[in-house]
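[Meeting: bench + compute handoff]

Bench side (C.D.) handed over the final construct sequence. Compute side (W.E.) agreed to return the predicted structure before the next meeting so the bench team could plan truncations. Sequence as handed over:
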Amino acid sequence: MRSVLFVCLGNICRSPLAEAILREKATEKGMDLRVDSAGTGSWHIGEPPCGHSVRIAQEHGLDIGAYRARQVSPDDAEAFDVIVGLDANNVADLERMGMANVYKLGDFGYGGADVPDPYFFPGFEGFEKVFSMIEHCCSGLLTRLETDLA
């Protein structure tokens, strides 16, 4: 079974959305894919995703309410075929940890752009924009997984 780990800073906004989106897309295609998410920081360990992420996921038919934040660990390097950071800082942190097969999600649909933290935008608008970016990039990632990644 192929496996993908999404990593952002706190594992309460972007990476849980990416996890749910890719899992749904893989299921729709009948792909056997293990998907998880984590954060580089430890501030939110054990917490559910933020309310806005839960809401935008629900608006798109996804349920992330039971997800719980965890911190990425060195064991993840062995446990996952592909590790995907949501922005350049996440990728740099993962590479400093010695992770291999690290990619940036924006490389799969936004020309290498970072998927920004939704809190950098006013109100709920950031979550809508970030969801759209993640969804687009997950489609590109899935295509690459079907062909040549890892």
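W.E. noted at the follow-up: The beta strands are 2-8, 33-39, 82-85, 102-104. C.D. will use this when planning the next construct.
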